[in-house]
Amino acid sequence: MKFFHLSDLHIGKRVNEFDLLKDQEYILGQILTLAKREKPDAVLIAGDLYDRSVPPAGAVELLDSFLTELAGLCCAVLAISGNHDSPERLDFGSRIMSRSGVTIAGSFRGKPQEVTLRDCYGPVHFWLLPYLKPACAAPYFPPEKLSSCESTVRTALSAAGWNPTERNVLVAHQFVTAFGTDPERCDSETLSLGGSDAVDFSAFDGFDYVALGHLHGPQHIGRQEVRYAGSPLKYSFSEVRQKKSVAVVELKEKGSVSIRLTHFPRCMKCA
Question: Given a cut of 50, is residue 269 above it in pLDDT?
């Protein structure tokens, strides 16, 4: 099973009042070209599809075009909402889109949404967990289980009833730490005071791969298989030295995971 891991598209973003839509159109085109060459079975988008909850019309048109072209390549598209997205707006039309292989989990509904794909080794279970804070989970769980983002995420995952002996991939949009150590952050990323947003990577024990969104720098946290894809474009001065990429992940039998990064050209003229 081969899949792409993307995140933090932030379609519709402006930097210093400069419209980045043309740059975003270009980089999404690069991803489509790569998908045509690599022929992944699935493309995972780990949140922040848009830059704000009410995106401009041009951003909606660009995302619509991108998802339509991906679906036309006969690969599954599995996406979740991030903290910049409006879950309800992403939910609109999702049931119809799922018939074309595009699954978008906008709102949290008590447990991660499951999508199962199959290859010659058997099933691969993809679990889609939208950006989750205690308030989002409050309608589904008792308050004593929702004291922090970490306890909320652990509670939500336990409700999924997933089988750790089979291959499982989680798509999530959270701030993940390892033994109290923070990952690399950028200027454009803000966190709650006191670290209440932090989720330790041990919450994802048993998952073969964890496709994270939320941070713009490509990196793993805790173990190689718990990974931030990073944003496809540089959205702040602190990202200037980052090498943006697509994570290409291949699963074989249980426990066999290979990850390689395919880097983007530095600019449109470099392609």
Answer: no
